[in-house]
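task queued by scheduler; priority normal; single chain, no ligands, no partner chains; default sampling; output format set to structure tokens
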Amino acid sequence: MVIIVREYEQQQFIGLLQTLGANTPVLPILLKGIIGNSSLSNRMELIAKLDEMMQPNPQQQQMEQMQQELAMQAAQAQIAVNTTQAEQNRAEATKLSVEAQLMPQEIQAKNMAAITKNLPNEDDQASREFDKRVKIAELMLKEADIKNKSKIVELQMSTAKNNVVDLENNFLEQLNTELSNGNR
């Protein structure tokens, strides 16, 4: 009866093993149970090997820990990148919103500046420069004309003065002549 019970347990372990598959984490425990219930002569040696296989490999543990840390760092870096992009997108959206709000004011300011400045094109500037030079030349001609007229006036005044002096001299001579003729 003990043999039948052992065989039934073996059947149960094997059925469980087939159901769970080879990649199950309880595989070493199931194998240990199957081997422990078997009548194999080297079962103690097999159980010892299974126990040894169940012990974690320090290098493998270290590698797994490093992989987990790298995965964690990569996840944190990705989160930082996503956060930065979100902040950048938010800032860009704010900038575009402000620009959209300021656009009508900017256009209005430019229109006002263009209206008040009456911005000339090149032809207008050339025409203005020519007109300016013409006015300067006219002013210079008027100034020269005024100087000439003032010289003429001076000459006329000088001539008139000389005429007055001549008249006075003639009058005095005539008076002298009449006096000298009358006194004799």
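post-processing summary
- The radius of gyration is 63 Å.
- The chain has a mean pLDDT of 82.
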